């Protein structure tokens, strides 16, 4: 390890000597800790320049790489679902949650998965996810007459590991077997100013941030997660983000589609809502599939139309991926070092010249992040799978002061979906006077549902099996269909 003098010289060469400003004041322990962080800071690359002009190299995905959950014939969809359930029943499918983010836009001090958006049941994102895992295990078990497990891998960071582990323990792992919930931690990187100088968060601490959700690949290696998967016989992994309240964990239709196509890597996509929508676009660059960030696509290109009239670059990435274990192994062992970090502009708390802590009101620094989707170009057989936004995507990114991707929009999206499911299954809702409420089965995701209805994932994973409880029945909202109510309603 480099001596302190060496480190001083290296920091000087890297333009980071300011980091040692308060070093002499510190007691031995924080001083040693600071020097350790600064080694990482000295090694930190300066941010890459602006992205090259992509316009001429861009193409939409060819149709043969794209499947759809909603278009096409129902029989093919059933085939995919059967295949997915079969693989789940064979214990070959795991889910992997990316939960290392700091959730700065939402602005809570605890991990986002612990957030509850105000559902009647008061369930948190973590609980909804746990219950969807239990339900999909049950569906596969019933179909194939065997007990099965979908292990839940949870990537956390220095910020989220402690509180997440405690929360799961306090909630008895939401009735999952703790042996099948595997938490591991991603790495951290220093945050830097716009001119590339590492930031002191305290006199004795360099500001560090998790290395992005693409930190997954080195974290898999660091914690021998792929070996754990191999021991359990897991072949296929569904990787997803913590903040999508509608996420279908281990979605059998998606898994089945990818498996039957022989894909090594897949991405769920939704139709972009409007040309400038800030989502990454799944497309091809020089013929190679990848996600291009919205900030890299010009307005003109974003507005281009396909012959059918829809947007040419229409496939919005929703951070829901299929990977084979073999593909993950190849990336983690051989290709991870090729992933380029991206620059994220953030507000980074720091200490001023005099050592006083400052909470900036405007972004003052950048964090270097790798993205989980940056591995798409390494796939030998990449496929995209288009799903309906109102059924599968409503992310929680912002506080309620924003008009999109907030607790309110997430809550409404889930309740509107459950109302649609109930109406489709034959339920009718009455107002306080006993008059029937209007039925609007094609309700858009963002609107207030006509009736408050929440269906536990333990009763229905994706709207299936509700007729036996709801057909021909009238309800005064709110209808909370949990396991106990379902038992009472059973004919
Ligand atoms: P976001 O990019 O939305 O970041 O993460 P965030 O940290 O949750 O929120 P902001 O930007 O600070 O407001 C998308 C997904 O990637 C995970 C998040 O937990 C979320 O599931 N993530 C993000 C990680 O697992 N690690 C990271 O370093 C960053």
Automatic annotation (TrEMBL):
Region (Disordered) residue spans: 45-74
Alphabetical keyword list: Nucleotidyltransferase, Transferase
Pfam family name, one: UDPGP
GO molecular function terms noted in the UniProt entry: UDP-N-acetylglucosamine diphosphorylase activity
GO biological process: UDP-N-acetylglucosamine biosynthetic process
InterPro entries attached to this UniProt entry: Nucleotide-diphossugar_trans, UDP-sugar_pyrophosphorylase, UDPGP_fam
Similarity comment: family membership: Belongs to the UDPGP type 1 family.
Protein's name in the database: UDP-N-acetylhexosamine pyrophosphorylase-like protein 1
């Amino acid at each position: 390890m480099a001596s302190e003098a060496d480190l001083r010289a290296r920091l000087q060469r890297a333009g980071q000597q300011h980091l040692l400003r308060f070093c002499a004041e510190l007691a031995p322990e924080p001083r040693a800790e600071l020097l350790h962080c600064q080694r990482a800071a000295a090694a930190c690359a300066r941010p890459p320049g602006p992205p090259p002009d992509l316009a001429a190299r861009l193409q939409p995905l060819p149709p043969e790489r794209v499947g759809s959950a909603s278009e096409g014939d129902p029989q093919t969809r059933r085939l995919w679902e059967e295949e997915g359930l079969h693989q789940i029943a064979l214990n070959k499918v795991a889910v992997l949650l990316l939960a290392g983010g700091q959730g700065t836009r939402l602005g809570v001090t605890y991990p986002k998965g612990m957030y509850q958006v105000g559902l009647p049941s008061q369930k948190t994102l973590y609980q909804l996810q746990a219950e969807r895992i239990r339900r999909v295990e049950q569906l596969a078990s019933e179909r194939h007459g065997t007990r099965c497990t979908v292990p839940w891998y949870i990537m956390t960071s220095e910020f989220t590991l402690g509180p997440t582990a405690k929360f799961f323990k306090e909630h008895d792992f939401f009735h999952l077997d703790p042996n099948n919930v595997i938490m591991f931690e991603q790495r951290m990187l220093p945050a830097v100013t716009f001119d590339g100088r590492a930031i002191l968060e305290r006199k004795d601490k360099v500001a560090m941030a998790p290395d992005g959700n693409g930190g997954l690949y080195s974290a898999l290696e660091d914690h021998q997660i792929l070996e754990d998967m191999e021991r359990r016989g897991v072949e296929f992994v569904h990787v997803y983000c913590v903040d999508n309240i509608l996420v279908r964990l281990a979605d059998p239709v998606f898994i089945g589609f990818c498996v039957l196509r022989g894909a090594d890597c897949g991405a769920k996509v939704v139709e972009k809502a409007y040309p400038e929508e800030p989502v990454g676009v799944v497309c091809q660059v020089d013929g190679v599939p990848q996600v291009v960030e919205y900030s890299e696509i010009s307005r003109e290109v974003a507005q281009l139309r396909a012959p059918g009239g829809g947007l040419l670059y229409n496939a919005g990435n929703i951070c829901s991926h299929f990977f084979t274990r073999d593909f993950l192994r190849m990336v983690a062992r051989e290709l991870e070092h090729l992933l380029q970090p991206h620059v994220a502009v953030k507000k980074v708390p720091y200490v001023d010249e005099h050592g006083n802590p400052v909470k900036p009101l405007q972004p003052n620094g950048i964090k270097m992040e790798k993205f989980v989707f940056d591995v798409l170009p390494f796939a030998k057989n990449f496929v995209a799978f288009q799903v309906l936004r109102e059924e599968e995507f409503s992310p929680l990114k912002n506080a309620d002061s924003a008009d999109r991707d907030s607790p309110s929009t997430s809550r409404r999206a889930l309740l509107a979906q459950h109302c649609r499911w109930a109406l489709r299954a034959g339920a009718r809702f009455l107002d306080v006077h006993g008059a029937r409420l209007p039925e609007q089965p094609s309700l858009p995701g963002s609107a207030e549902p006509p009736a408050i209805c929440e269906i536990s994932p333990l009763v229905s994973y994706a709207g299936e099996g509700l007729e036996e409880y709801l057909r021909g029945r009238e309800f005064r909202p709110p209808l909370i269909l949990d396991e106990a109510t379902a038992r009472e309603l059973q004919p």
